[in-house]
Amino acid sequence: MSKEYALTAPYYVYRIAFRSLDIPKLRASHWIPSFPHNAREIWVKQRQIRDLLLAIEPGAQWEKHEARMCPQCHRWVVGIQAQMMREREQRARLKGEASSPCSDYCEARSGLTLKNLRRLLAPKAPES
Ligand SMILES: [Zn+2]
Q1: 44 CA from centroid of ligand 1 (Å)
Q2: Is the distance from CB of 37 to CB of 29 less than 8 angstroms?
Q3: Distance from residue 2's CA to the centre of ligand 1 (Å)
Q4: Following DSSP, what letter does each residue of the chain receive, concatenated?
Q5: What is the DSSP string of 25-49?
Q6: Distance in Å, CA 50 to ligand 1 centroid
Q7: Ligand 1: distance of its center to the CA of 86 in Å?
Q8: Best CA proximity match to 66, nearest among 56, 52, 54, 81
Q9: Distance from the CA of 105 to the center of ligand 1, in angstroms?
Q10: Mean pLDDT taken over the chain
């Protein structure tokens, strides 16, 4: 697999929901921040972790979903949104363009720094 292809290959994650036990505490790097995470529900990145959790509770419910992190604002999206983001990245890459923002909030999140916020609050120079 070429590196170019790997960059836009689909990436899958797993949602696991326990029915009767609590999910053991996992290292933060094994689950996905910003997705639901509690004693009975978790989203994990690796199939091996999924298998371990299913060994703990064989009756647990689980699903596989495509997931993607926006390269600009680092927000994770899942399912059809992830698929659409991947397709946009593929098209942009083919045209040699930078990938577009994932949403209306993308730019704000990546671009509005503390410095910019201070500038918004700063008194305006009198017009001449
Ligand atoms: Zn984004």
Answers
A1: 21
A2: no
A3: 25
A4: --HHHHHTS-EEEEEEE-SSSPPPP--GGGB-TTS--SSSEEEES-HHHHHHHHHH-TT-EEEEEEEEE-TTT--EEETHHHHHHHHHHHHHHHHTPPPPPSSTTHHHHHH--HHHHHHHHSPPPPP-
A5: P--GGGB-TTS--SSSEEEES-HHH
A6: 27
A7: 12
A8: 81
A9: 7
A10: 84
* pLDDT tens by residue, 94-122: 999 887 788 777 765 445 667 777 877 87
pLDDT in tens, 18-28: 999 999 888 87
Gap from CA of 1 to ligand 1 centroid (Å): 26
Q: Find the 79 Cα to ligand 1 centroid distance in Å.
A: 16
Mean pLDDT (whole number) for 37-66: 94
